[in-house]
Structures are given as C-alpha cells and as structure tokens.
Amino acid sequence: MAPRSFWKGYLKLSLVTCPVAMMPATSEEEKVRFRTLNGKTGNPVVSRYVDAVTGKAVNEDDEVKGYPRGENDYVMLEDEEIEAVALESTRTIDIETFVPRETIAWIWYDTPHYLVPNDTVGEEAFSVIREAMAATGTVGISRLVLYRRERAVMLEPRGKGIVLWTLRYGDEVRNEKDYFSGLGKAKPEARALSLVKALIKERTKKWDPKMADDPVQERLLDIIAAKKKGRKRPAKRKAPPPTAGNVVNIMDALRRSIKADGKGK
User: Fold this and answer.
1) Which residues pair with 143 in a beta bridge?
2) Sign of the four-CA dihedral 201, 206, 209, 213
3) Is it true that domain 7-27+85-172 has CATH number 3.40.390.10?
4) What is the C-alpha separation between 93 and 95, in angstroms, rounded?
5) Residues 232-247: pLDDT tens digits?
6) Less Cβ around it within 10 Å: N or C end of the chain?
7) Any idea what the Cα angle at residue 13 is, between residues 12 and 14, rounded to 5°?
8) Does residue 135 come out as left (phi exceeding 0), alpha (psi in the -120 to 50 range) or beta?
9) Are the beta carbons of 22 and 7 closer than 8 angstroms?
10) Where in the chain is the domain with CATH 2.40.290.10?
C-alpha cells in the first residue's frame, strides 16, 4: 500500500497551477532501531540540555540559537528572526528555471520524493508540465520549505509522475578538483586495460535491488529473534582471511582474477 502524502500544495508554472501531493521516495521504517537503556534497571535513558558552565538543566523556553563569533562568545537569534527570512509561501512549488538534465551532477542530489497530482482536475496540467520537461530533456528548479528549511529542489519527469529531489546546499558540495587535480599522471598499460575490461564484462549483470541489501540488519534481526525466544545468540561469523599486502605484478593478479571468475561460473 502506498504511503500517505506528507506534503500537499501546488505545482505552478507561470499561469498554470495544479494541486499536488508529495511522499518520500525512500523509507527507513524497516531499519532496526535501538533505545539506550540503563543496564542496571532496564529503564530507558532520556537526554536533556544542560548549561555547559553551571551544569544545570535548561528549560525549553530558554533555548535559543547561537552563532559563534569568538571564543565563548555568541550572537543569539530568536526563532522569529530565523523564520522571518524563510519563503513567504511554503505550499507552492513555483518553477522559475529549467536546466538541461545532464548538467546537474549526481553529487548535488539529496533526498528523493514522489510528486503526483492531487485531484483529477489538475492531472492534465500536471501531465503537460511533466511531458514538456521529458520532451526537452530538462528538469525544473524551484525553492521550497521542507523539513523546516528552505531548499532548492529539482523536478525530474519519471514515468507518469515527477520525482522531486531536494538539492544539497552550495557549501555542502566540495570541489572535486581539490582531490583529483593531482591524479592522471600514470597511464594504464594497454594489456592491463584489456584484462580489466574482460574482468568487468565477466562480472556485469543486470541491476537487482537485492544488491543493496543490508546483511548487518539481517544478522541483527536473527539475534533479536533468538533472544525473544530465550535462545543463545547465533555464533559469530568467521572473519574473512587477510588479503595480501602489495600486489607485485598487476598483470599476474588480473590473469588470476579472470581465471578464478571463469571457474566460479
């Protein structure tokens, strides 16, 4: 069953407007979550804010945001001051800019959401915007208040719907040149390159969501199930054998890899 929408508002392009609903495209509901307990009593442990100098608990009404301007010196901001700089409307996705789809690198993508029309009357306007973006190979850029913060968002046509991605802030994405500019001096040997291509071809499969399964969570659930039934926890998994240190001859290593893959199949 599809999850309920957590956001409802309007999709707007110039004079074209339609009601829409949005749901997160991913979920962490199935993740194993733990509570911190007092090991002596078994009671849950709660956290609270404490004044770093006096050691006394701070009342919720006395909590304010502070921006450091020096050692132990802060500029204090009230919630009303922070909210005053937010968007006036938090319920309208107003597409003001379109950019070619391929010009936004994956590193800017943050969190995906599914966007759908919220009534049959607005479905035609929704489909026109979606199909026009698909036909032109573009995505829409807008701004929206989500998760209590104003964010840039990207709207991408996907099948009969639209995927809305929140985008990372500019100061969150580091420049790749700072890390890759010193690389590229060593040129791969033609024979080694050919062998790696053969190894890639041998291991190429169709994408399967099971490739992204979480084996740690599966083992945790086994332990929890055993404890519920009063059984001992499953035996520890054996550690994998240590791998060799430096590869002396890359050609020999590649040949052995291809030979091993062939035997496995």
Assistant:
1) 152
2) negative
3) no
4) 6
5) 655 566 666 665 555 4
6) N
7) 115
8) alpha
9) yes
10) 7-27+85-172
